[in-house]
Design brief:
Helix 8 links the parallel strand 6 and strand 7. The protein is an alpha/beta fold. Strands 1-8-7-6-5-4-3-2 form an eight-stranded parallel sheet, sandwiched between helices. It is built from eleven helices and eight strands. The N terminus is likely disordered. The radius of gyration is 19 Å and the shape is globular.
Length: 284
Amino acid sequence: MRTIRLTDAAGQAERARKFHALHERPGAFVIPNPWDAGSAKLLAAMGFEALATTSAGYAFSIGKPDSQGAVSRDETLENVRAIVGATGLPVSADLENGFGDDAASCAKTIRMAAQAGLVGGSIEDATGRNDAPIYPFEEAVERVRAAVKAAHALSFPFVLTARAENLIHGRMDLPDTIRRLQAYAEAGADVLYAPGLKTPQDIAAVVQAVTPRPVNVLMGLAGAALSVDELARLGVKRISVGSALARAAYGEFLRAAREVREQGTFTFAQKAVPFAEINAMFGG
């Protein structure tokens, strides 16, 4: 693991300060999810103020499924380093379940994430097991508590996000989801996140339940079509899109490839970004 030089540490601390400030200012901000250095540079060039990684988008980019254990912690952090190095923006990462069932694994992952240049990261309560997809309540809280302790021991304000995964694992139990988020807030999590919230009523219920802690909401899922302004009015602070941008990119790729394979035509190229434009965005 590369040790951050003093100049790197100073830059990381400044990015951490900026990231923290985004959560404290009025209104909501969008934190889009690149899956590699190239997509990170494009998003930075468009004016976004912070980035968050996507475990699914990265897994797809290296030919793997998005399932727990398919991508190792070392692989994830190598991708993190590439994304952090691609721009000067604050970067938070999807750190899955901390890459281990025990609380110590969560703490170690946070420390390694900070060494990789991150200024934020999320720990989820999903186990990756079909027979028991969500950690029991007390175990889940202890895991968040360990991650928080590791984050708060760092020399800069690492933003620790705690994720309650019920809704995207078929457990449509909003009261238990809120109970978990409240417990994670009590354990010290800086941001609360329940991917799978779709209706204004459910989003408002979560925001009200954990106020004043900021809430991250995931957009880009089927059935979730609220705007930034609508989410801000509901009290949402941070909006991410998970794998949606990666899936949109792959969707266009597949449509183009199918046209060539099935029709023998190449009209897709008429909609492709001009070479000069995208090359310029990469600094060519």
